C-alpha cells in the first residue's frame, strides 16, 4: 500500500507529486496515457496569467497570483523556459470602459502588482500592430509565457528523481473505500493507498463521484488554436487579450517562448471528454476574433492547428481539498484556466494538506534542482565544438526546422521518465514542431527511438497506444 496515489500526470498531478517528494512518503502517479503532459496540460495558451480575472476571494484568484509569483524561481530551479512579457486587455470603445475598470479593481483586490489602464495612444506606442480602434487597455506587467510541456515534464522528472513512482498506460477504472485507505482498480491491476489525490483533469468528476455522495460535474470546454511560424513571432511582443466574457478570457494573440505566434482559443462546451478535434467553424472564429484586436495578422503563416479541453466545473472554481464525505480522498478538480499558472501553488496546497493529515517529515536529501536537455545552440562556438568532439551526436542535425540534434533526442529518451514515442520526443526537444511539422525528421527520429529502446520500428508510435506509424504486411523487414 502506497501512502499516496495521484491520479493524473498533468501539471496539477506532477506539481503535487514534486511537492510531496519533499517528504518521507511513498507516492505513486497513475497516468492512463504513455507519458506525462498528454491532456489539458499539453494543449493550452501557455500563458502565466497576472491574476486580475478571477473573482476576489476565490481559491482561483489566490492560487493564480501565488503561482505567478512562484513561477520565476521554479523556472530557474527546474530549468524550463519562462518569460515575463506582460499582457494587454484591449477595450475597443468608451462604452466598454466600465468592464475594463472593473477588471482593474478586481486585479487590485487580488493583489496583482503594477496594473495600469493605458490610453489608446499609449497602447499603440507599445504595440504597433494593435487595431487602430483600440480605445484603452489594461496593462499587467507581471503576466508571462511558459513552455507547458517543459514545465510539466520538469515537475515530473524532479518528482521521479526524488523517489515518486510513475505508472503509465495505467487507466483507473474504479475506486473503492477499503480499511485504511482506497483500492484503485486499473487496466494494469489493483493498487492501494492510504490517500488518493484526484488530479484527473476532465475526468476528475468521474472519480470524485465514485466515492462521494455530494456530486460534482465537469464540462469539457474545447478551445481551438492556430500556431504560426516563427516568421510571425514578433507581430506582437506581449499577450493581447479581449475583454473576458462568461466563457473565459476570449481569443488571444501571444508570442511563445520558442518564437512562434499563437492565436486562440475558442470556448465550446462539449460532451466528449476526448473531443480534441478542431473544426472549420472554430478556427474561423479564432481568425475573425483575433483580427478584431490585432491588425494584419499573417494567417498564411499558420503551420498547425490544434484543440485542447479545459475542465470547467459548474461552480467555475478550483475544488482542492479533502472531500467532505470521503476521508483521505483529496480533490484537485475543476482546474481550468488559470490552472497552468496556478500549478506551483496547487502542488504546494495539496502537499500541505497531506503533510498535516499524515504528519509527514521532510527529507534531508531532497533534490530541489533539475537540468533540462542541453541545447547546443545555447553554447558558444568554442563550447559547441568541444561538445561535438566529445559527443558527436550533438553535431548531427535531425530536425532542420528547429535545429534539433541527435544528442538532444538521445538525452530525451534516456533521462528520467524518458520519451517513448514521437510526440514524447517532440514535447521534450521540439523535434517535429517546426514549419514542416515532422514531415522530414520523423523517420530518423523513429530510428533513434527504436535503437535506444531496443524495439522494432514497427513498435514505435506517434503517441502511444495503437498510434503505430509503420503498418502492413512487410513491416518486420524494416
Low-confidence stretches: none
Shape: globular
Mean pLDDT: 96
The rounded distance between the terminal residues' Cα atoms is 43 Å
Report the β-strand fraction as a percent range.
15-25%
So how many helices?
Answer: 12
Percentage of residues assigned to helices = 25-40%
Which structural class best describes the helix and strand composition? alpha+beta
General description of the model:
The chain is globular. Helix 1 runs parallel beside helix 5 and helix 2 packs across helix 8. It is an alpha+beta fold. It has helices at 11-20, 59-78, 97-110, 120-126, 148-161, 204-211, 280-293, 339-358, 381-390, 406-414, 422-429, 442-453, and strands at 2-7, 27-30, 47-48, 82-83, 87-91, 116-119, 136-140, 144-146, 165-167, 172-178, 181-186, 189-198, 218-228, 239-242, 252-255, 261-264, 268-269, 302-313, 319-322, 329-333, 397-399, 404-405. It contains 12 helices and 22 strands. The two termini are 43 Å apart. The mean pLDDT is 96.
How would you summarize this macromolecular structure in one to three sentences?
The chain is α+β, with helices and mostly antiparallel strands. The protein has helices spanning 11-20, 59-78, 97-110, 120-126, 148-161, 204-211, 280-293, 339-358, 381-390, 406-414, 422-429, 442-453; strands at residues 2-7, 27-30, 47-48, 82-83, 87-91, 116-119, 136-140, 144-146, 165-167, 172-178, 181-186, 189-198, 218-228, 239-242, 252-255, 261-264, 268-269, 302-313, 319-322, 329-333, 397-399, 404-405. It is built from twelve helices and 22 strands.
Amino acid at each position: 500500500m502506497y501512502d499516496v496515489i495521484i491520479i493524473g500526470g498533468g501539471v496539477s498531478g506532477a506539481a503535487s507529486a514534486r511537492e510531496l517528494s519533499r517528504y518521507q512518503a511513498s507516492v505513486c502517479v497513475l497516468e492512463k496515457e504513455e507519458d506525462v503532459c498528454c491532456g489539458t496540460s499539453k494543449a493550452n495558451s501557455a500563458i502565466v496569467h497576472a491574476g486580475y480575472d478571477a473573482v476576489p476571494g476565490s481559491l482561483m484568484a489566490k492560487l493564480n497570483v501565488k503561482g505567478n509569483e512562484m513561477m520565476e524561481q521554479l523556472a530557474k530551479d527546474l530549468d524550463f523556459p519562462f518569460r515575463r512579457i506582460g499582457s494587454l486587455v484591449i477595450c475597443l470603445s468608451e462604452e466598454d470602459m466600465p468592464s475594463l475598470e472593473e477588471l482593474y479593481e478586481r486585479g487590485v483586490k487580488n493583489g496583482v502588482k503594477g496594473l495600469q489602464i493605458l490610453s489608446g495612444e499609449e497602447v499603440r506606442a507599445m504595440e504597433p500592430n494593435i487595431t487602430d480602434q483600440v480605445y484603452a487597455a489594461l496593462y499587467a506587467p507581471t503576466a508571462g509565457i511558459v513552455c507547458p510541456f517543459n514545465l510539466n515534464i520538469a515537475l515530473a522528472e524532479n518528482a521521479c528523481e526524488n523517489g515518486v513512482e510513475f505508472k503509465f498506460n495505467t487507466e483507473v477504472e474504479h475506486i473503492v473505500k477499503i480499511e485504511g485507505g482506497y483500492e484503485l482498480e486499473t487496466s494494469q491491476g489493483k493498487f492501494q493507498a492510504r490517500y488518493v489525490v484526484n488530479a484527473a483533469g476532465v475526468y476528475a468528476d468521474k472519480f470524485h463521484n465514485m466515492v462521494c455522495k455530494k456530486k460534482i460535474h465537469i464540462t469539457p470546454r474545447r478551445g481551438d488554436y492556430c500556431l504560426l511560424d516563427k516568421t510571425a513571432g514578433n507581430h506582437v511582443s506581449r499577450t493581447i487579450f479581449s475583454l473576458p466574457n462568461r466563457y473565459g478570457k476570449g481569443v488571444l494573440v501571444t508570442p511563445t517562448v520558442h518564437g512562434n505566434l499563437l492565436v486562440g482559443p475558442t470556448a465550446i462546451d462539449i460532451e466528449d471528454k476526448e473531443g480534441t478535434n478542431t473544426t472549420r467553424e472554430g478556427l474561423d472564429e479564432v481568425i475573425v476574433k483575433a483580427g478584431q484586436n490585432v491588425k494584419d495578422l499573417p494567417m498564411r503563416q499558420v503551420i498547425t492547428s490544434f484543440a485542447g479541453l479545459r475542465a470547467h466545473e459548474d461552480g467555475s472554481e478550483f475544488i482542492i481539498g479533502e472531500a467532505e464525505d470521503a476521508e483521505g480522498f483529496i480533490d484537485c478538480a475543476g482546474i481550468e484556466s488559470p490552472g497552468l499558472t496556478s500549478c506551483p501553488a496547487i502542488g504546494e496546497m495539496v502537499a500541505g494538506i497531506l503533510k498535516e493529515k499524515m504528519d509527514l517529515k521532510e527529507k534531508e536529501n531532497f533534490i530541489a534542482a533539475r537540468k533540462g536537455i542541453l541545447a547546443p545552440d545555447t553554447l558558444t562556438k568554442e563550447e559547441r565544438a568541444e561538445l561535438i568532439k566529445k559527443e558527436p551526436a550533438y553535431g548531427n542535425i535531425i530536425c532542420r526546422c528547429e535545429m534539433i540534434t541527435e544528442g538532444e533526442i538521445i538525452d530525451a529518451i534516456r533521462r528520467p521518465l524518458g520519451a517513448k514515442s514521437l510526440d514524447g520526443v517532440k514535447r521534450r526537444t521540439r523535434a517535429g514542431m517546426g514549419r514542416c511539422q515532422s514531415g522530414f525528421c520523423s523517420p530518423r527520429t523513429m530510428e533513434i527511438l527504436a535503437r535506444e529502446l531496443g524495439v522494432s520500428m514497427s513498435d514505435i508510435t506517434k503517441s502511444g497506444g495503437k498510434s503505430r506509424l509503420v503498418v502492413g504486411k512487410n513491416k518486420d523487414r524494416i
